[in-house]
Amino acid sequence: MDLYETYRSPTFRKQADDVRFRMEWDDYEDFLRKYDANVNSEERTSWFSVAAFFEGVEVLVKRGLIDLALVDDLLAVSIKRTWEKIGPVETRSREHFNNPRLFDDFEYLYNELMKYHERHPELKT
User: Fold this and answer.
1) Given 21, 64, 76, 87, which residue has the most CB atoms within 10 angstroms?
2) What is the C-alpha separation between 8 and 12, in angstroms, rounded?
3) What residues does each domain of the chain span?
């Protein structure tokens, strides 16, 4: 439940809202112009904090330390909305920085959650 404590903290909520609702870009180049760490460190910190949080959740799921059903109950909407917004930038960043593992656990978490919802159509996010 410490994960949920972090998730619902005012600091994390602000960072998540920054990423999902306040940060806007047209394409990868526009994203870099606006949110590169050298340009906008506060927004970039929010981005990294949120992505790293969900990355860590997936590591716990993958290692069997937390059940995907529990993650779905607590975090599904945020995982879905956040990855759908930042995923295209992160996949492009992998190429740009020649780092194929960049937030790949967050992407995996999203994909596993979508498969879980296919198996359980009564669950809507």
Assistant:
1) 76
2) 7
3) 2-119
Tokens of 79: 């995982």
pLDDT at 9 exceeding the cut of 80: yes
Integer Cα distance of 66 and 57 in angstroms: 8
SS3 annotation, the chain: CHHHHHHCCHHHHHHHHHHHHHCCCCCHHHHHHHHCCCCCHHHHHHHHHHHHHHHHHHHHHHCCCCCHHHHHHHHHHHHHHHHHHHHHHHHHHHHHCCCCCCCHHHHHHHHHHHHHHHHCCCCCC
Structure-token pair, residue 124: 């809507």
Band of pLDDT at residue 37, cut at 50, 70 and 90: confident
pTM of the model: 0.91
Closest CA to 16 of 54, 73, 72, 58: 54
